[in-house]
């Protein structure tokens, strides 16, 4: 069983995360979701992380506090509590001090991390290299940014359209993204004086829009799109290199619910390619999708019903996608701020007795309160009978 | 006016008042859980009481009178125990329309007492928490309470 158990790390007092094929983490801000996901990366890729850090001149002098600052970000040494913090991965105890002490060098990477701060990966419309960041910036952000730089320079550097592109993503995805994210625009590489940059252009001939005038949603989405490109290579292989796991933090950022639905479909595509995907989210829409998948599966629904949830066409390739997803195990965990503990709320039962479970980890609290206030007012309004 | 008096003075509900939750069918009783049963002011099986008078109407199930610790007057829970799924939404809303209309025309005394219209799931709930249906219920004054209506000692103000 792929279970990560954490005690006394940052805000987390006790967490037990048994990962499924798709695992969703929910909970208020600063409850340890991101720490848990970065720790998962460390469990799977300690050698590769240390190798990358060494390559760019980071030296933690085999000290755990220095390593935590370099990996999680400046000041994060405080998450580790001497004598209290413990971590277990797949049933075995893991000593973080040992990880910091023994420098390893490994190229094989198991987990690809798309961080919440992904918008920082582009500056003036071009991906920033690892060394462009301050030494105290989180490793996950720096590494993601570096990967985008390599991707754009090696696979798109010669200029031309990054989106839409025939051999990138299914036609159905391209159509949905065009409609819900890019409108009439293309994403392409051009040059301003001698500087290459990504721009949005209505056509190849007309004037292009530079990064600073993109919508907030487009600025958030482009790094995410490039992340999906990284995970779905143009070759016929389903997955890139040795990557088996994908972490995607807050996929909803800056996006309209229709665009979120497309990103969720792309997540299903990752599942079909046998990636194991972990999401963190503050969006009730993501849990609506998980809830729908569970109930459709339980009720023996046909694949078209799944596609209807995402407003996707019933084409053969999309039906294959939906079919594949029905076989996947879906898990949801709630990070509770009050107790510092996690709970498994995978059932997503709206009539559950515990508030954390029925309220889906607080994601529907506001909506529930609004409904309750209106219900009360409407129940006791007594309009005059019609004459 | 108390719940008990209002029921006794409603001709359509002659002889329908029962102590505690005794008007509820045995299979429906587990769906209602009062914190203090001594505060129950009685219950009425509206559906059965009106069956002969309005056999084809979408009749509501029950009314439960309760005296909350923080209130000076009675409060009525109008309870419908029913499957909670998308396809039943229309049925429930028809029942609620019928109940409101009956209260306006034939249950005027009961219509004056503060209340909540409650739909309790008889089985699994199969619509999401912030589905548009919830907004629709709210606008109609209908509260969906999951599998069990828990009646607290004090009613939140």
Give the topology.
The complex is a heterodimer of chains A (387) and B (157).
Chain A lengths: L2 E7 L2 E7 L3 E5 L6 H23 L8 H9 L13 E4 L2 E3 L1 H6 L9 E4 L7 E2 L2 E2 L11 H17 L4 E4 L7 H12 L3 E7 L2 E7 L14 H16 L13 E5 L7 H16 L3 E5 L3 H15 L4 H7 L6 H11 L3 E6 L6 E3 L10 H4 L6 H16 L7
Parallel strand pairs in A: 3-13, 3-14, 6-12, 12-13
Antiparallel strand pairs in A: 1-2, 1-4, 4-5, 7-8, 9-10, 10-11, 14-15
Chain B lengths: L2 H6 L8 E2 L13 E3 L5 E6 H4 L12 E5 L8 E8 L6 H17 L2 H4 L3 E7 L10 H9 L1 E3 L4 E3 L6
Parallel strand pairs in B: 2-8, 5-6, 6-7
Antiparallel strand pairs in B: 1-3, 3-4, 4-5
Poorly predicted regions of chain B are none
- Helix count of chain A equals 12
How widely separated are the two ends of chain B? 20 Å
CA radius of gyration of chain B: 15 Å
Using the coordinates shown, work out and report the CATH topology of chain A.
Answer: Rossmann fold
Order of helices and strands of chain A: EEEHHEEHEEEHEHEEHEHEHHHEEHH
CATH class of chain A: Alpha Beta
Q: What's the overall geometry of chain A?
A: globular
Q: Radius of gyration of chain A from the CA trace?
A: 22 Å
Structural class of chain B: alpha/beta
SS-derived structural category of chain A: alpha/beta
Segments of chain A where pLDDT lies below 50 for 5+ residues? none
- Order of strands in the sheet with most strands of chain B: 1-3-4-5-6-7
The strand count of chain B comes to 8
Tell me the number of helical segments of chain B per DSSP (H or I, 4 or more residues long). Answer: 5
Largest sheet features of chain A: 6 strands, mixed
